[in-house]
Design brief:
single chain; 4-stranded antiparallel beta sheet; alpha+beta; Chitinase A, domain 3; two-stranded antiparallel sheet; 13 helices
Length: 340
């Protein structure tokens, strides 16, 4: 799902981080200072005992020029790790993240020595980062409580449970740059030419042509560009398009290999997808609500007042549709970028 505002493109990980293995590391796994142990022996109920308990739960794991780095800092750093690092064992993650935090503090100390934080251009960068962080925290504060297991299960029930599956098509295609070549390919196919052979010879979608003879696999109607889907889903098993199908990538000759009705996906296979969609929907609502609370005046590049106008249907439709080949494939035409 696309979001219409840059501020709304907050990832699920940034909003609602699921604790990694490191986040569950007990305080006892980290080194403790003698002072922490001494405080732990204070009489029960005393202020010192409470302080010692807090120190034990969030011990100092390193110091840089006397400035402490605590276990909570390490846990917070773990939230910014790439997804593939989340499954690393704590004994590998812990020293790696401590070293990262030490490096960061050392760099900050050197930056402050040079007074970089006082430079106007640096202050602008720092303010922009602070503003972005505050926006993300605000969105997390609004959205987080509503993204629960119950809400995800309810969304699954609404979207999938008890509903008939979608129609799917298994098709292959040959993509060329001009209509004349496409018509010539159709003529050759009618004369008995092999589809896969022609795909390897002519198709500019080398990702599907070279390995699979133009095979695109199974896809649902919304998986492809509208014109491509409209043609493919109107065809019968074994049928080849009688006229070229035009999309922004060029001209397609399509053959439908089979059709079927899919079964609804199991909850576990779409749980993360539903969760992300709910987050994006709620973020969009939060952004829209915030915008309604403020007075906005826009200006043209020359400084003259600009008239606010809703997006035209054409503009809204500009982002609609999907690539005529799965997103994992190479661009369908030389130099073409991946579709949205």
């Amino acid at each position: 799902m696309r979001l219409l505002s840059p501020v709304a493109t907050v990832s699920a990980a940034a909003l609602l981080f699921s604790a990694t293995s490191l986040a569950s590391v007990p305080a006892s796994a980290a080194p403790q200072h003698k002072g922490d142990a001494a405080h732990a022996a204070a009489p029960a109920g005393s202020a010192k005992t409470a302080a010692a308990k807090a120190a034990n739960e969030n011990p100092v794991v390193a110091t840089v020029n006397g400035d402490p780095i605590r276990l909570e800092d390490v846990r917070n750093a773990a939230q910014n790790l790439p997804e593939e690092a989340h499954n690393l064992p704590p004994q590998m993650l812990f020293p790696m993240l401590v070293n990262q935090l030490v490096d960061q503090k050392a760099l900050l100390i050197e930056a402050h020595k040079e007074g970089l934080e006082k430079k106007p251009e640096v202050q602008k960068i720092m303010q922009a980062a602070a503003d972005q962080a505050l926006q993300n925290v605000y969105l997390s504060h609004l959205v987080g409580p509503s993204i629960t297991d119950e809400s995800i299960k309810q969304a699954y029930a609404d979207q999938y449970a008890g509903k008939p599956g979608e129609k799917e098509v298994h098709a292959r295609h040959i993509l060329v740059a001009d209509e004349k070549t496409a018509n010539d390919i159709i003529k050759q196919l009618k004369g008995g030419a092999d589809f896969g052979t022609l795909a390897k010879k002519y198709s500019t979608d080398k990702g599907s042509a070279d390995n699979d003879g133009g095979d695109l696999g199974w896809f649902k109607q919304g998986d492809m560009l509208p014109d491509f889907s409209k043609a493919a889903f109107a065809m019968k098993k074994g049928e080849i398009s009688q006229t070229p199908v035009h999309t922004r990538y060029g001209y397609h000759v399509i053959q439908v290999l089979d059709t079927r009705t899919s079964t609804p996906p199991a909850f576990d296979t779409v749980r993360d997808q539903i969760r992300q969609k709910l987050i994006q929907q709620d973020v969009r609502k939060a952004v829209d609500a915030a915008v309604k609370q403020v007075k906005i005046q826009r200006f043209n590049p020359d400084g003259s007042p600009a008239k606010d106008a809703p997006a035209s249907p054409a503009a809204k439709a500009a982002g609609a549709g999907q690539p005529p080949v799965p997103s994992t494939a190479v661009p369908a035409t030389p130099g073409a970028s991946s579709a949205d």
